[in-house]
Amino acid sequence: MTVTLTASQTLTAALARMLAAQALPPAAILLDGPVGAGKTHFARAFIRARQGQAAEDVPSPTYTLVQTYDDPMGTEIWHADLYRLTDPAELAELGLEDALDHAICLIEWPDRLADRPPGAILLSLMDHADPDLRWIVLDMPDAARLAARAVFVHDAGWDEARVTPLAGDASARRYFRLEGSGGAVLMDDPSGSVPAFAAMTGWLRDHGFGAPRIMAADPDAGFLLLEDLGDDLVARVLADRPDLAPRIQDRITDLLVSLQAAPPPAGLAVLDGPAMGDLAALFTRTYPGADLPDLPALIGDLHDRLGAGVAPVLSLRDFHAENLIWRGEDPIGLLDYQDAVLAHPAYDPVSAWQDARRDIDPGVEAAQIRRFLDATGHEDAAFRAAYALIGAQRALRILGVFARLAIRDGKPRYLDFMPRVWGNLQRNLAHPALAPLRAALHDVPSPRDGAIERIRAACRP
Questions:
Q1: Which of 58, 299, 303, 397 is 20 to 30 A from 154 in CA distance terms?
Q2: For 30, phi and psi rounded to 5 degrees?
Q3: Residue 216 pairs with which residues in a beta bridge?
Q4: Per residue in 361-384, pLDDT tens?
């Protein structure tokens, strides 16, 4: 994919920093253009972005031909200027040919190479009628999206910030930390959910909840610049500070109570019985041995029956310890709520206390259900039956999602979570109210009984 943009020196550097955030070795980045076009300026910004606080001086390698740099991100960086190269055979003597196999190589004057390295990124800088600007042509996969991120950050006034990737999730969204005045997080979501996220952010902040402040936005392009709530994910804090666990667990449940007590925002979709059944249909399409065409209708009927007479409440849906930020006495930080809906009151408690990614002591789950019921006044037996059904439905959907991520998207790492999710499913199915569902799933193989191996065999390379 090729994209062309008009760039100042600051935008050129911002583009370099954005590319530095996602470059993985081995990588060849070819910097083409005449003398004075800004090739070394781009390379310098790239290298300093990778090095962060350990950044060195980055001189032009015009006379040395090659400069090498240590990279705290775990990669060796080579910066080569081939202008004075007279014979491509000299590349072996310089060591550049070997470096292309393992390092990130920024190569000025790439026309001196005998051949363009396979998979190389080509960035051409050309003179513009305005001497303060350059034409930049970027040729690489996803070039348009990377350039759009750089332009958005530049226009938001964060063009000098170092950019580092943050762990993403199972969606198409990507997150980057911008290290600057106070820090910020860039949310890149091409799926079209940015307007919903922005609207939900406004509602949450207006009601005193810990959503990040929006610092800049381009909803049409799918970009938000968000307040950085920090690195203290609840999942990480619980692992590192078990002494804080009772306090954090109570705060999570109290947050759920408060969220559900507030009048929900208008216009949210409702997760009723048919919708819950439709979401579980993914399990029947992707999980080995789950040829159960009647499963969605069965779940829908059970949901409508077990949840009868209970008004739906706000549900953030992906309400779990990796989407919550611990901030001490400040409100718990919230992430990933663009898919908020109206749902049965048990939906988010299930999400919180039956986590696919980490083990939760059944005693902790029981204590927090009790705390939630005491605070909300829901009828005990009816709530627990609905909780079990929603837990089973979510487990089935998650198993389907993990199978799809492996088969369709080539992301098999989620398969490691399947045994835990299957265990949650079995505990929920033990509830007497779920006897019809338990019978329907009786012959479906568990992940450890060959299902994971069959999924791996079908995984996209």
A1: 58
A2: -95, 120
A3: 225
A4: 999 999 999 999 999 999 999 999
